[in-house]
Amino acid sequence: MGFDLGSLLSQFTSSGTSANATDHFDKVAQSASPDLLSQGLSAMFHSDQTPPFGQIAGQLFGQANPGQQAGMVNQILASMGPGVLASLLNGSKGSGLGAILGQLTQGGAAPVVITPDQASKLTPEQVQVIASHAEQHNPGIVDEMSGFYAQHAGLIKTLGGAALTIALAKMAERHPG
């Protein structure tokens, strides 16, 4: 085997800086359990040292490929009940967001699964609005999306060293051994 996740996390926390966080994160993400990675990402999203969840979600959406974008939006929309989705649609008139999301619903019912092509028509700013709205009505969405992003760790690297440092520190704290 040769790779010791605990040793790498310990090494990072004792000498880690945001300058080398990307390299460490890449190695850790390849070896950590999805649960441990998700916990680290959740801590990062909840940290007062990172932008709000909606803003990060929008940024990650902008870096994602269309398949990942559809996965993000579908997961966020699935976390909203019909009433929450309706309030988002009503509050988004004139922004283009209401029109796009309105096409994705069936008569105001639960959202349909959107395709990568449909997702690619959304902007990062619109996804930020959707994610922020979802978080207001379902704070657990942050943890749900952390699980999604744990499966797409390459996207997380685009957030930069400071955010990765927070995730790595939380993973080191929670890693047994």
What do these coordinates show?
69% of the residues lie in helices and 0% in strands. The protein is an all-alpha fold and 177 residues long. The protein has one domain (5-174). α2 (21-31) packs across α12 and α3 crosses α10 (141-150). The two termini are 17 Å apart. The relative contact order is 0.23.
What is shown here, in short?
The protein contains 12 helices and no strands.
Q: Report the strand count.
A: 0
Helices and strands, in N-to-C order? HHHHHHHHHHHH
User: Number of helix segments?
Assistant: 12
Rg:
17 Å
Give the overall pLDDT as a whole number.
80
Please report the distance between the alpha carbons of the first and last residues: 17 Å
Question: Domains counted in the coordinates: how many?
Answer: 1
Main sheet properties: none
Please state the structural category. mainly alpha
**Form type:** globular
The percent range for helix content is 55-70%
- The low-pLDDT segments are none
Strand percentage: under 5%
Write the layout of secondary structure elements.
Blueprint: H1 5-15, H2 21-31, H3 34-46, H4 53-63, H5 66-78, H6 82-91, H7 97-103, H8 116-119, H9 124-137, H10 141-150, H11 153-156, H12 161-174
Helix pairs in contact: 1-2, 1-12, 2-12, 3-10, 3-12, 4-9, 5-10, 6-7
